Every structure is written in structure tokens, then in C-alpha cells.
Records
---
Amino acid sequence: MQITINFKKTHLLVGTFLALTMAIIGLYTLDSNLLAIFVVIEIYLILLALFFFGISWINPQQPKQGENQLKSNSLYLANLFNQYSIFTESSIDGRIIYANENFIKCTGYSKNEILEMKYSFLQSGVHSSKFYADLWETVLAGNIWQGEICNKNKLGKFFWVYMTIIPQFDRSGKVFKFLSFMHEITQIKKMELEKEELERQLYHSQKLESIGQLTSGVAHDFNNILMAIIGFSDLGVALIEKNNYDKAIASFDKVRKSARRATDLVDKMLTFCSENTVSAEHPIRPATIVQEVVDISDMLRSGISTKIQVKFENNLYDNAIGILIGESELHQMTANLLINARDAIEITNKNNGFISVNLFLDAIDHPETCYACGKTFTGRYVNLSVSDNGSGISKEKIPKIFDPFFTTKEVGKGTGLGLSVVSGIMNHAKGHILVDSKLEEGTVISLLFPIIYMDNNKPDVSLTAKKEISRTKLKICVVDDENDILDLYSEQLTLLGYDVSCFNLPTSAWDKIHNNPDYFDVVISDYGMPEATGLDLANLILTIRPNIPILICTGYSDKLKSDKDLPIGNTFLFKKPVEIEQLHQIIQKFFLSI
Amino acid sequence: MAHILVIDDDEDLRDLLSQYLMLENHEVTTASDGLAGIQLVKSEKFDLIITDIIMPNKDGIEFILDLLDDPDVENTPIIAMSGGKRKISSEFNLVSASTLGVKAILKKPFTSHELYKSVKSALT
């Protein structure tokens, strides 16, 4: 096609040039004596011009055919493009200035509604504001942005597209509009989400399996703690009867210490039981990683025979790095590796069983192949490895250990899901797994997490209020359906100098507040109560007292997990068991700051 | 008044049992595992030994088996305690009651009353 176009242009150019030359020479020769010679040359030139024009006339069909073909090809392509792709043009402030039919179909809006509509109008709420900020930063800097994005159509339904945004520049090189090409991927996305949900369920059921492994250990620890609580309170009472108050106080201190130990244990269990998030949003720093690994090792300790020595060594101190993994997932993986190590030692009946957990910064200089994803990799990683001197795994079996349901354990000892879950979680975390094992000698399994570099200067937030407030007695409304807890709050808060009113039903507290809205300065409420939750009560109170501090105490609720789940206002969340000192500090801090 | 050895890896429980027993005017020595217990038994004389079962280094069963090998102390009465791990305590129950000469088994958590009762019967 290219050649035809050039050929045609050449003909025309040469023909025109010769015709013009001929005319000029012809005019010039009118005054010349060499008329005869020029007439001959002129005739020659006319013939040449005619010849070239002739070719141009004879050949026009050929180039025209190409032109038509080109025209029909681009039309064909434009049709295809319109049929299968979604396309828009938008202005620098995100207004849509052109949209093709497919885009209109996807959004459910009419053409008139779409035009001049801002892209932000379609936001689904699925992505964070940071996601959109990053997108805008990329395209406004003149770079192409590509990615998956979820929008909301006129009916409120989500539709996913894979989008490519290409910035367009004006003559001065400034971005003045954007071309966006999209492919709808709602179905693919739906399947992905279903797969993720299935994986999540699988992880969770595997976790239930490991909880079974944990229970005996936790029960042992709990019985020790209960023993101390019951014993020391008995002892305290006995000591008071003998007027030995100093020793009695020491005894009750032990009761409190043991109850805190029980709280810690329940906390660890709950972190372990909480559902995995599959992908974590915030990186965790070494201090947290160490804490989580120590927590789970502690919890498992009593489930591992005392004949097996468990050692934890931490060599990760750089606070400017982190890894992207959920605490619950880290628990689950560590627990699985520890349980496997324990079982591998137990079947050998060794008396010098040894499990070593190591955390360190690892540099993989020579390419290694990941046992879970099969990819070759190098680089720097956070390495969490669990080694044992147990039975080891034979060479033939190593490639199979991450397969679901593969197990070497006897029936009832394991479902074979543990390592497949570990590999699934590591895949999500974009990490790798290395296995080193020798039969009869032992196994080392290393989890390698990609490093995330972070800002080191974030200060720790401390909640201590140093000054005591000198105000008139603050009036506190306490709501809890357990009378014992009400008694406890009442006595302790009165001792701290507050004027306390107690209610064992949210409705009776509401009656009092409703009738006299300005009476109370602070509300402390339980979350789970009959008739209404603490959250319902808080929402009601906030309608008439939008600024009153409300402290909500909760045991364990799916609906109320963090401050984010609280209504806007001066509301604070406390996890039970709550120590009065914590409530006191928050109240002090609140009234000091106003 | 008796000289009693209390072996438990949990510091709080060692303290609690000591205080309970001292309230009854007994003299108490404590150890944190079976290994430390054995060393104490070799150097001091006890009228009664109260030992936990699940402990690091040397557990309660190994400790008792060691005691039985020593003619000087094989007749010292023993009370065993256990918290959880039913499998071990029931196995232990069977073996201990008949062959190891354990006087009583206390399942954690137990009250001071239960402790005093067991101590009293073990000492008579």
C-alpha cells in the first residue's frame, strides 16, 4: 500500500514540474532567436509531461483502491474497537468529554448524563483514597496508568474494568486531557473473589485444626492461672482474718497479675482465631513480628513435650523495615511449622529434641528456587525459619509437602493442609519458601518475606495524663447488664472521686439521659446488653449530646473491632477486661484537653 | 510441722503453695523442675514432696522414678499435681497409684482445703 501512494505522488510531482518548466521556457522563447530549437524542446517537454500525466491518469485506480481499503480497514477497526472496547476522553479535572457506546452501556447513564460528569462520580468505594491519589499523581505527571478499577453504575452495581489512561499533551508539553481505554473484567473479578473466599475458608478450617492442637496446651496454662487466682484470693481472705494486711495485699496483687496473664492468653487465642485477611494492608515492624512469633511459641509451648527444647533467636533489629503480613496469618504459619517440627521429633522418640526458631535479615545472592511457587529468586528478605532435629523428609517427598492433603502423619494427627496453607499465605505475601531436609537428621523450613522499607521517625503515642483535673465532681453514667461489674465500677470510680450513677439496662439509662440531657459528663457502657447494644445507646445519646465522651467496653464482637466501627463523636473503645485506671486516664485526658 | 519440698515450674504456684503450707506451720523448700528437685533431695531430708508433672528439663514422672532408685528417699511420701493433659495424668494415675507409691493426685486448679486434706493424709 505504501509503494502505491509514493508512485502516484511522484507522477504528479514530475508531471507538474515539467509542465511548469515548459510554460516558463515557452514564454521566455517568445523574445528569443532560437525559436526553432525551443519549439522542438517544448514539444519534447509537452510529450514528456503528457506521458507522465498519462501515467497518473492511467494508474489512479490502483492508489484509490488502497485508499478505500485503508478507509474501510480503519472503519472496520474503529467498529471493532467500539464493539469490544470501552473508551472515554476526559479533561484534566476528570470530566468526561467523550464516551463511546460501550462506556454508556456499562454505566447505565444516558449520553447527556455522562458528558460533563466527573469520573469520581463512578467511584465504588472499593478503593482507598490513596489509590485514587496515586492514580492522579501518575497521570498528571504525564505517565500512563494501568490497573484494575471498580466503578459503580447508575443502578449502584459494581463493574470492574482493566483501565489504561494515556495523558495527552498540548504544544507546551502540558497534560491537557486523558484517553482511557478499558476492558470489562467484572466476571473475572467475580471468579477471583470467589476463589479468594474459598481460600479464606480453607485457611480458616485449617486453623480450626491447629486450634485443636493448641487446646491442650492452653488448657494447661489456664488451669495454672486459675489455680493462682482461686488460691491467692483464698489466701488473701485468710490473711485478712489473721490481720496480716501487708501479706493480704501482696496476695491480691498476685490475683490481679494472674488475671492479666489470663487476659493475655485469651488475647492471643483471639488473634489466632480471628479470620485471616488474606492480604494485609499495613506492614508490621520487627518488634511486632518478634512479639507475634514469641506469643504463638508461648501458646504452643505447653502443647510440646517438655523433652523438646524450643529456642527462639531474634537477629532482626532494623526498625526501618517491615513485612506485609497479617498478625493472624503469621500466627497460623508459625503454629503450623512448630506443630510439624514437634511431630517430626516425637515420631523419632528422641530424648534430645530441639526446635529452633530464627528471625533474621537474609541476603540470597545465588539464585534459589522457591518450593511453593517454583520461581527462582535472589535479593534481601526477612527470614523466619523453623528447624528441628526430627525425622526429616525424604528427597522424593519434599516436592509434595506443599500439596493440599499430603501428609506423612498417621490418621488423626493431621489433615495435610498445614503446609499448603503456609504456601498459600506466602504466595499472597509475595514471599518464598525454602526447604532443607535430611532423613534422620532434621528439617529447616524458611519463610522469606519481601522487605518493605519504612519511615523510622514515627513517634509512639502515649496516653498518660500527668496532671489531675481540678473540677467539680464529674458525673458518670455507667451502663452494664452484669450487676457485679456495676458494683465494681461504682466503688472504684467513687474512690477515684467521681459521682457515679449505675444502670443495668440501656433503656433505663436512656430514660434518665433523655429527661435530663445535661446531667452527665461521661457515659461508660457495656457493648453486649439485652434490648440494645452499647453502640445503639451511644448513637441515641449523641443525637442530644453530640460532644459527651462515651466509653464503650466490649468483650469480643465482630461488629465492634476497632475505633473505626464507632460513631463519630468523642467515643472510645475498650477491650474487656477493662482496668478502671484506663478509663480514668481517658476521662482525665479528655477533660484536660478541653 | 513437716519439712515439705514443692516442685513446680510456675513461680506463682510455688509461691502460693509455700504460703498455704506455711500458714499451717510447715517448713517449705521450693524447686522449679525435677532436676533441681533431685539435687535438693540429695542434700536435704524432706517429710513430704509435692511435685508438678509437666515441667521442663526433668518432668514429674522422671523425678519420681529417680527417687525410687535412691534407697534413702524411696519411702518419702509424694503428692503429684497436674493441670490439663488428661492423657498424661490418667496414665500417670494408673502407674503411680500402684507402683510409684504416690499418696495423692491433685488436679489443678485445687483449693487450699483439698491441699490440706491431701497433705494431712500423706503425712500420717
---
Amino acid sequence: MTVLAGLVAPGFLSSGPVRVALALGGIVSLVSAPVGVLTVVRRQSFAGHALGDIGATGGAGAFLLGVSALWGFLASSAIAVGAFHVAGSRERRSRDIATGIVLGAALGVSALFLYLDANSTSTTGATMTVLFGSLFVVPPGTVPLVAGLGAVALVAVLVCFRPLLLAAVHPDVAAARGVRVRRVELGYLVALAVAVALSAMTIGAVLSTALLVGPSGAALRVTRRPGSAVALAAALGVVATFAGVLLAYDSYAWPPAQHGWPASFFVVVLLFVADLAAGLLAGRGRRRSARRRAG
Amino acid sequence: MFASFMAGTWIAGSAVAVVAGVVGYFVVLRGETFAAHALPQGAFAGAAGAAVLGLSPVLGAGAFSLLGAVVIALLGRRGRHDVAAALALVLLLASGALFLGLSTSYAPEVFSLLFGQLLGVGLGDTPAIVAVSLACVLLAGALFRPLLAWSALGDASVVRGRRSAAVEAAFLVLLTLATTAAVPVVGAFLMFSLVSAPAAAVRLLARSPLVGVAGSVAVALGIVWASVALGYLTSWPIGFFVGAGGALSYGVARLVARVRS
């Protein structure tokens, strides 16, 4: 207990911004778990990365209009998801290049918006907030909105979860069983857009992939069963975001003085370490079972 | 626009455009988008770290993109793990943000390293950028034929085994040098645009390698010069013009290619 008391700085749980940050982190982790598992199984981790980059444009635009960044993230990732859906089945080599060029244009527009933000409000914080997140400055009024959106996404993805999984692993079997692949895919894409927007709100647009595929990637290395993978991913996500918030809160006391370390940095590092640890664990398990079979 | 304080920007910008055009040709031919996307983000972290220590951003960008290239080469041998690669990328970006957060110069530095800045290049960094660019172009010229075979034929190439590994290493070195030179000028996020858009646009219109390389260098130079000029006139960030110019040139090339066929 004394160790825990030493870790949790005084006033942590009674601080308003901390509560908002924890609520946001918890909701995002729950939504990202099933969406992330599907994303990893479908091998679309980089689509998630691209959505985050495009999300930056929306977030920066929302700052310019003076509305909540969440709306900007949501609008831009919805547009991008729609575009991916339309452009879905092209040759990989040319599609990757075209995607990269569109991403470049989107990032260029973000640069312009962020520059205009800095000029119109004479604050330079927008760059950091949009790209790398600032959990502690999220207005408390955002929490009900985030919870509502999260619930919609969760319902959408859970309804489509089994058919989508089947379509991802065995497309032919899914087609034979009469799964309407395009239609259930729409449910996944809606959930993906919301999950990316919420992750962008939590740890910043360009880092949002970490929260989307990090926990699920680690979970899927350890277990092959979809249900337990989702549960494990949700747990990992919650632990990483909560620990990230705690460490960021503590870091105000660390050098250099008066500079808190960003919460998103801790979240990303923790998820990276979790993925490495899961890889080691899985490797050892595989070796052991191989030895058992050989012996 | 052509005042003496702009000399560094014009010289460094032109050098970077030439390098981006040359390296971009192989990137597009090979379809190697991952490395071209990942190395600049590593360079961002390095340049940010150098800013904390008070060193030249070119030095930091070089060290970190070299590290990134080694990691990519190792990952490539064992088969890439999608999630691990995405997480590693994000980790680099997050560390860059942390480094800049810890240094005294805060948001403006983040902005210029990510999106490029007109006056971000001091005259002090220009010789280093030009030297790195020159090394890159010479290396590409010396290894032109093996690189071409490796890029065009992919893994089924005639240069198999050890030879193929050596050519891939040379390609990563080229990309590292290009990234080192370009990130301090056009920014980590727009580097990919400048590398891939001109080459992709030219490839849609011309198939011959020499025309391809010369064409992408010309388009890249056009984009950079227009961006510097427009950036100077409007004082908008240079990254916006680079991103828009890249998309515009690629879009026009697609349109022309469609009309032709």
C-alpha cells in the first residue's frame, strides 16, 4: 500500500481534470478493443494510422471554427472511412502510393489550419493538442458526448462482430453462408471512424493508432480466441490509459520543473512495452509446445 | 524573396528537391511506401532530440533515420509484424513530442519539424544539407542499374540472395540520406509527399527510367520552388504548399493518363 501511496500523488483522484481524463481513457479503451481486434485480424493497422493523420486536419479545422475538436476528428475520419470503403479493392502498390499522397495533402492542410489557429488565437497550443493530445484540458462537458458516441460504436461493432470476423478469416465461407459482406463492413467502418476520433481526442490524432491497435495486437499474440482477445485488449487499454494519466500527473514533480510530460507519451510507451512482452510470451509458449511435441 | 537571408532556404530546398526526385523514383517503382513513411517520423524524433541538446537538427535527423533503417532491415528479414511496426512509428512520434516538450523552445519547433518552415533552415545547416544530398545523388548514380533491377522486379529479381540484400541496404542508405537532408526543410509529415508524388506522377506518363528520374527531379524542383515562393508571399507554412503541390501534380498526371488512353 505504501508503494501505491507513493505513486499516487496527493489530490490525484479528487482533481476534476484527472477524473475527466480517466473517464475518457476508459471509454476509449472499451470501444477500441473490439474495433482493434477486427482491425488487426483484417491486417488494416495502417488504415488506422492513415485515419489518424487525416483526423489531424479535422481537429485543426475544428479549432479554427471554435467548436470541439471531437467534431472535427469525427467528421474527417468519417469522410476518410467512406473514401477507403469506395477505393477498397485496388492493386496494393498503386493504392499505397495514392493513399500516401492524399495523406500528404491532408497533412499539408492541417499545417495551414494550425498556422491559422496560432495566428487567430495567438496561442500555440493547438499544434500539440491536435497532434499529440492534451487529456488534462478536455472540457468536462465532452464526457457525456464521448460516452454516447462510444455506446453507438460499441453496439455497431458487436452486432457485426461474428460475421465480420468470419469474413476476415474465411471470405469464401462467409460468402457461402450468405453473409452480406459489404453491409456488415459498413457497421465496422462506422465503429472504426468513431474509435479513431475518440482515440485522437485522448492521445492526439497522429498517435491514435497506438490506442486502436496496440492493446488488440498484444492480446491477439497471447490468445487466439476472439472473445478473450477483446476482453484482454479492453483490460490492457484501460490499464495503459490509467497508468499514463497517473504518470503524467506525477511528472509535474519531475525535471524540468513546471513541465508536465505528455500523458500520450506514457500511454504509447506502455502499449509498446505490452506488445513486446506479449510477443516474448507468445514466443516462449510456442517453443515450449514445440519441445513437448518433439519430446 | 531573393534577399540574402533567403539564400539558405533556396539552396537547401533545391538540393532536397533533387534528392527527393531521384530517391522517389525507386520508392515508387518498388512500391516501398512503408520505409518512406517511417524514416521521416524517426528523423522527427532525432531532430527534436538534437534541439533539446542544442545540436544541429541535421545531425539528430541523420542519427535517428539511420537507426530506423537498421530496424526496418531487421524487421524485413523476420517478416514484418503489422502492429509492432505501427506502434514503433507512433512511439517515435511520441518521443519527438516529448523531447520538444522538455526543451525550452516549444510549439514553434514542433511545427517546423513536422510541417517544414521557410526560415527553418539557417545558413549554418545548408552546407550539411547540400553535402548529404550530393552523397545521395552520387550513390544513386553509381548503383543505378542494380537499384533499377531490384526496384522493378521486386523479390523475383535476378539479383537474388546476398546481392539482393546488399541492394536493399543501399536503397535504405539512400532513403536515410534523403530523409536527413529533407526533414529539416520540408518537415517530417510532408517528406513522403515530396518523395512519392513527383515520381508517381511522372511514372503515369513515361516508362523509361532516365526520363522517369529526370522528370521526377523536375517536378520536385517545381514543387519546392513554388512552395518557397508562395510561402514567402503568403507567410503560410511551406508544408501546405508541398502537400497540395504533390497532390495536384499527381492528380493532373492521372487525368492526362486517362485522357490519353
